[in-house]
Amino acid sequence: MQFLHTMLRVGNLQRSIDFYTQVLGMQLLRRSENPEYRYTLAFLGFDGGNPQQAEIELTHNWDTEQYELGTAYGHIALGVPDAYAACEKIKAAGGNVTREAGPVKGGSTVIAFVTDPDGYKIELIQMNSRSHGTASSDPLRSA
Known about the structure:
Strand content: 35-45%
Number of helices: 2
């Protein structure tokens, strides 16, 4: 098995595409329209769609402008080389940093949180502060 994508329903597709591409540095990999059922799908990811990485699927139902996030949703996590620099880059691009970079409570892993335009939480995990794993090719690397 392979983890393929996480789907998020969004109220304004272009606004969300702009956030994930311009603020987080993802690339729009493909987009499909379904006029009969009134929805659009947009898939975003890193490295031009690297098969070793999962993607984000943004689903826009044309007649819905807002969703309730629910209490079961937690967050999406992205590995970054430097969470402090990534936060500065995200703020400079107009992104909303909701928890500045710093060690997780009771640990040494450096994390931060940002929120996308629909309110979804995205955790940034500084890869060199973790006990395992390495940073993958990441557009926030130059942060």
